[in-house]
UniProtKB/TrEMBL annotation:
The keyword Transmembrane does not apply. It comes from the Bacteria. The lineage of its organism: Bacteria, Pseudomonadati, Pseudomonadota, Gammaproteobacteria, Pseudomonadales. SUPFAM superfamilies: Periplasmic binding protein-like II, Winged helix' DNA-binding domain. Belongs to the LysR transcriptional regulatory family. This is LysR family transcriptional regulator. The keyword Calcium does not apply.
Amino acid sequence: MRRVTFDLDVLRTYVLGVELGSFARAADRLGRSTSAVSAQLKKLEDQAGTPLLHKAGRGLAMTDAGETLLGYARRMLELNDEAATAIRGADLEGWVRLGLQEDFGEGLLQEVLGQFARAHPKVRVEVRIARNPELLERVTSGRLDLALAWAGNQGTPHAERLGEVPMCWIGAEHRDPPLPTGEPLPLIALEAPCLLRTAATNALDGAGIPWRVAITSPSLAGIWAGVSAGLGVTVRTPIGLPPGLRVLDADSSSLPPLPSLALMLHRSDEALSSVAARLAEILRGQVGALIDAGSLPHGQNRMHKGTTVREPA
């Protein structure tokens, strides 16, 4: 069997084109001509020995092989970038304090800290899991260097928008949700004030759907337990959704649509230390991957097999 060595530069173009939903936009982002990107895609298919894309109307769509390669390409590029970061910062020392919402306390935190620790074993990281108001207060007072939090009424002087995530109605996977039937809809939510709780009640009020708070919890664990038991529905994002729960389709469940929620990276100072700057870089990459490639419902910010994208001219 012929041994194939994929070109990482070509894989990066492929992944970017898929994530942007347009290889023409990928060419613009990379500063290349569309003909150069077309040549890269042809080279990638030659290396793979099978079609990765096929015509779909006026655009392109991934084949089964193309979808399979996409997952491997992301992993290869992540490992490549991690190796480059580790070489550049092998002697980095110090400590950094990071704050996160509970939504990111498992999957994202594990990925970020694992990648950071492998690249910078001499750096000590302290993590605080808390809700938005506490995270922002700690950043403002200098007790956190970085904090990943939802955008709301509060802010900090030094913050950047990393992207948007849809808010969703969440119900138990193997239970019929308590649909609006004239009786108040049982709602499960965090203690007020809570951005997602407010979004849920505003949406229900706007749709004229009566509701009642069935469970109030100080933590996400209580929310997930109540929803899993079929005691009500909640509003969260798809990030960190545990097994046994599912995103409810708003139309089929007669629930009102919900807005998206911006994700912000807050900094204690405009100029970060080299240690904090490196952690922020890893956070941006992991959050971007999370938004583009795995946390969102079908059709949100990512291309699936059978979804057309613009091809280079």
